[in-house]
Specification:
The protein has a domain at about 155-208: Roll (Nucleotide Exchange Factor Grpe, Chain A, domain 2), CATH 2.30.22. It is built from 4 helices and 6 strands. It has helices at about 5, 30-40, 45-130, 135-150, and strands at about 155, 170-175, 180-185, 190, 195-200, 200-205. A hairpin with a 2-residue loop joins β4 and β5 (about 195-200).
């Protein structure tokens, strides 16, 4: 037998590694999964539920904010429409007031035109016969009072009336048989219902 054939050494041994008996270390991902399992085992799911609750609460608040923003936009739109309607109403009201004032002035002037005609005739007649001037002026005065009455005006502050500071203005006080009695009228006053249009300027008596 050849000595070379009988020689065996380490170089002739089977050097193929035994993979069946080799154990590999766990990968980082495996470690992470194990840590998560450990965390769940330790009770962290409760923290996760709290976080989910907070997230849900934030989502609810965001939804509420969106709803409020939409509601605010709707309110702004309605406010704009109301402002536009009010401006139109104000313009129409001003126009109606101006028209009513114009109609009132027109009616008052129309009512006073016959008075002017009577006054013109009285002056013409007075030029020819002065004795007729006074009755003509008195007739004009009476017609003016009738026109005022038709407009809702009531004369106040005539001689013999009791003095009332609500309607009358005393420009002088003179001795008399009674207190607060109108004895002389310098300017006739007018009222319209409970509203004073012009106070009567009068002289009032006062017992000495």
């Amino acid at each position: 037998m050849n000595d070379d054939q009988n020689k065996t050494g380490p170089q002739d041994a089977d050097t193929t590694p035994d993979t069946e008996n080799i154990k590999f270390d766990a990968s980082p991902e495996t470690e992470t999964d194990n840590m998560q399992e450990d965390a769940e085992t330790a009770g962290f799911p409760e923290m996760d539920e709290n976080m989910l609750g907070q997230v849900q609460e934030m989502m609810d608040k965001l939804q509420r904010a969106e709803d409020l923003e939409k509601e605010n936009a709707d309110l702004k739109l309605k406010l704009g429409r109301l402002a536009s309607d009010f401006e139109g109403y104000r313009t129409r009201t001003q126009q109606d007031v101006a028209a009513a004032q114009g109609q009132g002035v027109s009616k008052a002037a129309e009512a006073l035109m016959p008075v002017y005609d009577d006054l013109d005739r009285a002056l013409s007649m007075g030029g020819e016969d002065p004795a007729k001037l006074i009755p003509g002026i008195q007739a004009v005065q009476s017609k003016v009072l009738s026109v005022f009455a038709g407009l809702g005006l009531e004369a106040t502050g005539r001689e013999g009336e009791v003095f009332d500071p609500q309607w009358h203005e005393a420009i002088q006080v003179v001795p008399g048989d009674e207190d607060d009695l109108i004895v002389t009228v310098y300017q006739l006053g007018f009222r319209m219902g409970d509203r004073l249009v012009r106070p009567a300027r009068v002289v009032v008596s006062r017992k000495g």
